[in-house]
Every structure is written in C-alpha cells, then in structure tokens.
Automatic annotation (TrEMBL):
Positions of the UniProt region annotated as Disordered: 14-39
UniProt-recorded name of the protein: DUF1684 domain-containing protein
Organism lineage: Archaea, Methanobacteriati, Methanobacteriota, Stenosarchaea group, Halobacteria
InterPro entries: DUF1684
Coiled-coil annotated residue ranges, if any: none
Native source species: Natronolimnobius baerhuensis
Length: 187
C-alpha cells in the first residue's frame, strides 16, 4: 500500500464530507447550525488502524434486533464475523485479536455490510451511540476470505447531529475492549 496516496485519498473524502455537511440540503446538520459548522472532527490518519480481517461467513444468518436511538428495534442479519489483529497500547489489557460482526438489513436489495461498533473512545472522544463502518465486497464472501477493514473510515451516525434521525445502536457483541483512535471524533 502506498501510504501517501492512501492518506491523500482519505483527506479528499473527509473534505468532501465536510462540504456536504456544511452545504447540502440533506446534511444531518440542522440548517440553522450550518453557518457555524466548522467541519467534522477526525483523528489523524493512521495506517495502523487499516487492518486485514479474516471472514467467517454464517451460512444460516441469525436475525439480530438492534435497538435504535429512538427506542425502536431494527432487524438485521448477522452475515459475517471478521477477525483481526490490532496493535494495542499499554493501557489495553486484552490481547491483540478482536472480532466484529457484519450485518445487513433484512432486505433483498441490501448489498453492503454494516459494522456498527463501540470501543474505548465511545462517549469520550467519539459519539456515545457508537460509530459505523461499511464494507462493499465485490463478490459473495466465503469463509477464510481476507478483507481490509479501515477504521480511519469509521463515521458518526447522523443521529449525533440531529434528533430527526433514528440510528441503530451497536449490539454488545460489537463492543471492543480496545481504544481505536481512528476515523471520526465527536466530543
């Protein structure tokens, strides 16, 4: 991987998002707050948090009911479990291997894998309701497939900016006992 090219592409995506949030009619930032919007806060890009994960595909996906910020439940299917290693800092006592479940809405048109998660930054440096990532594999996954999971792309759900949005909360199986200072911040 060319780290400089990766960093430049990441910074470009972040600039596009800031422009969308500040100006677009569908921005989650309320219209009356957009003039004062100074941009999304981010952790510095860090390739350490761009990891390779091994997929375990669930042939008979379980339904997972996720609570939402508005007190409802949404039905998702747990399709894949991703196992990956992270370098840890001295404060983290767990070993360096972690798992995250990846889901899809119970909908025939859904293609992306949805990965809601919490980590030790949640509620301190990041949104109290957790953060999200999405993966869009270019084919059906098989057990043993290697995927890149880039926590630098972790984002804050729209409900952090406006109560008009109803967002799923990460289920407990996706609560990581490690600090992941990558992606979007929200304090």
């Amino acid at each position: 991987m060319d780290v400089e090219q990766w960093r430049a592409e990441l910074e470009d995506k972040r600039a596009e998002k800031d422009e969308f949030f500040a100006q677009h009619p569908q921005s989650p930032v309320p219209p009356e707050e957009r003039d004062d919007f100074a941009g999304v806060e981010y952790f510095d890009p860090d390739p350490t948090y761009r990891v390779h994960a091994t997929a375990t595909v669930h042939d008979d996906p379980e339904v997972v009911l996720m609570d939402t910020t508005a007190g409802r439940e949404m039905r998702y299917l747990r399709l894949v479990t991703l196992e990956f290693d992270l370098e840890r800092d001295e404060a983290d006592l767990e070993d360096g291997t972690y798992e995250l479940a990846a889901y899809q809405l119970e909908s025939p048109n859904e293609q992306q894998l949805f990965i809601p998660f919490r980590d030790k930054t949640t509620g301190q440096q990041t949104y109290e309701g957790g953060r999200y990532m999405e993966l869009a594999p270019d084919r059906d996954l098989e057990t043993g497939d290697d995927l890149v999971v880039d926590f630098n792309l972790a984002y804050t759900p729209f409900c952090a900016y406006s109560e008009t949005y109803d967002c799923p909360l990460p289920p407990e199986e996706n609560w990581l006992e490690v600090t992941i200072p990558a992606g979007e911040r929200f304090e």
